[in-house]
Amino acid sequence: MKYKLVKLQKLSGNKASIYSVVQNGETESFLEKFLKENQISFIDKTKNILMRLRSIGHTTGARESFFKVFEGKVGDGVCALYDEPESNLRLYCIRYGTQLVVVGNGGPKSKRISAFQEDDKLTDENYFLRWLSGEITNRIKDKEILYINDHLDFAGNLEFEDDERS
Amino acid sequence: METFSSKLIDDLLDSIDPVEQAKVDAKMLIAAKIADAMKAKGWRNNDLLKAVNKENPSIITKWLSGTHNFTVDTLVELGKALDINLLNLSEPTAKVVTYFQSVSQKAQTTCNDTFLNDILKKMEEQVPAYPVGSWHGSFDSHKQLAQA
Hints:
The complex is a heterodimer of chains A (166) and B (148).
Chain A: E1 2-8, E2 17-23, H1 30-38, H2 43-60, E3 67-68, E4 78-81, E5 89-96, E6 100-108, H3 120-141, E7 145-148, E8 153-156, E9 159-161
Parallel strand pairs in A: 2-6
Antiparallel strand pairs in A: 1-2, 1-9, 3-4, 4-5, 5-6, 7-8
Chain B: E1 2-4, H1 7-14, H2 18-41, H3 45-51, H4 58-64, H5 72-82, H6 115-126, H7 139-147
C-alpha cells in the first residue's frame, strides 16, 4: 500500500503546518476519514478538534502540552491531540517541534478500556502512525526529507510504501 | 510538498461560529502564556502545583492542554503565582498623539534687479579679500534668504 503526505491548506498557517496522509487511489486524507467516521456521533467534538488544529496552525503553534504524548514508541513523536474535557475522541498525530504536525486517524476510546490496545481500530491507527513516524525519521536521517521554510514544511520524497499493508 | 484542499474540512470550518473559534483560541493562548511563564521561571509542573497550593498534578496538565475553561479565580491565582497578567483589566488611558506637519516651498521666480541682489553681488565680489579658512559664512544662504 502506498501513502503520501499532504499539507492541509486551510488548517496550516504561519505558526504551524498541518499535514495528513492520503492513501494511494483515494481522494480523502486520514483526517477527513476521521471526521467522516465521527461527525455523526460526535459533531461538536469533531468541530472542536478542527478548531484546535486551526488554532495550532494560525495562532499558537503545536506546543507539546496540547498533545497527550508518549502514545507511540520512545522518541517517535506519536501523540494524541487533547480534546474537550470528558471527551474521549482520540486523534493520533506525529509532532515535529512546534511547527509541524502530521495528523492521522483515530476514534472514540471507550471508558471501559484503559489502554488503546484493547480497541482494534485505535490500535490499527496508532500503529500506522508509529510505522509512518519510523519511515519519516529514516528519511530525515538520510536527507531524503528536509525541513524547509523555517521548519514549517517538509520537502523531498513524501511517498511511502508499506508492503505489510498491501 | 503537495497542498491539499478538502471540501469536507472547508465546509466544517465555514460552519464554525467565529465566536466559538475565538473561545478555543483564547483557551489555547492562555495555556501557552502559562507555559511560557513557567519556562521563564524554570518551573516544572510540580513547582506550579506548589505555588498555587494544589495537590492533584493532573490539574496542571489540564491547564496546559489548552482545553480548560478557566475561572476568573484561577486566572488570578495563576497570574499571582507566575507574576503575569492573565486578565488585562487596566483602565484604558487617554493617549495624546501629536502630529507635526511641515510645508516648504521654493520661490518660484527670482528678481534680478532688486536693490538687495545688488548688495549681495557686491558682497560676493569681496569674498577673495578674506583669507582662506577664515570665512565661515555662506553667501549662498544669504542669497537664498533674500530670495525667499
